[in-house]
Amino acid sequence: MAELLLLLGLILPQTIAGIFAKSQGRSFWFWFFISFLIPIISLVVLLFLDDKSESTTGFKLADHVKRDKKQV
Q: For the whole model, what pTM was predicted?
């Protein structure tokens, strides 16, 4: 039982980093493995990186602007 708790305690920070990275539009597996090498530092770096997800990339464009982008 103690080994299972130890394993869970070792995997939890990596999983948190991976999930947080995925929510920021980054690779889950890359940050999961990076956080094995530098667990706390990787979380701090993720906090300061810009969000790459498409839902937060800027203001919503008007319909005619979207139409013009498709033509170009």
A: 0.65
